[in-house]
Amino acid sequence: MAVTACGLRAGVIQVASASDDRVYRIDAEIWAPAAEIRWPGDRVGVRVYYAVDKLAADYGIAETRVQDPAQMRLGQLEDDLVVLLPPGELPSGHVIDFASAHEAFHLAAQYYGARIRTDKLVDMPVVSDKDAVSSFWEEIESQASGALAGSGEIDCGRIRSAFDALDEIDKVYVLHRAFWEWPAEFYARVWAFGYGTGGAYPEARSMIRGDNRVYTSGSTAMLYVHKRSADRSWQWEIASGRNAIDVFMRAGGCADIEGEGLSVRVKRIDFFDPPRR
Question: I need a surface site. Which of 48, 90, 121, 248 has the fewest CB within 10 A?
Answer without folding.
Answer: 121
